[in-house]
Amino acid sequence: MRTAIALVVWTCVSHAAWQPLFNGKDLEGWKQVGPGRFVVENGMLRTEGGMGLLYYTGRKFGNCTLRVVFKTSGEKDNSGLYIRMPEEPKDPWYGVHNGYEVQIDGAGDEWHSTGALYSLSKVTGKRQKKPGEWNTMEVRLQGQTTIVKVNGKVVNRFRGDQPAPPRKQWYEPVRGPRPDEGFIGLQNHDGRSKIVFREVSVSR
Q1: How does pLDDT run across 33-75, given as a tens digit for each residue?
Q2: Which CATH number is 57's domain given?
Q3: Exposed site from 18, 36, 95, 195, fewest CB < 10 Å?
Q4: HEC profile for 135-150?
Q5: Which range marks the domain in which residue 147 is found?
Q6: Residue 117 CA to chain centroid, in angstroms?
């Protein structure tokens, strides 16, 4: 029943207006933590340098749909959309262990590829396009339910209380539910990855 309700809500918001969170000019409303960074170039956000987290400072998000439009430059480029962070992050790993990372990685396995909740909830299939082509990822937050679409196809449904594989490495997220609403952010994973975001937006 909860899944059915979530799907009804998803349908209802599909035609709602999208509110941009990135203005295409500068990083107003955003803050960076960690050594990596995002630069604004040609009206878009581009990753640069080492591990970092760029988060939106304006408010927390819950019961909404988030959308990012991005492209990669290489097969193994790595990034992610952080959701449900309970507090403003103080370091680049905060989003991994305290929120959820909705993965961006065309080369990862089903637990670590685009649309997966990193090492917690696997995708049903790979939908990311080849490097240089634009991808759209939509993430629906509805209470404790998270539903992920990649290029128009639902690839992941997750509830905060559902089982997850055992944690094996320190860099894998701490298990357990996250809050219904929280801060969001973008990951700058490493100096090799070059990912461009042309849109970050939200819809009720």
Answers
A1: 999 999 999 999 999 998 999 999 999 999 999 999 999 999 9
A2: 2.60.120.560
A3: 18
A4: EEEEEEEECCEEEEEE
A5: 2-203
A6: 9
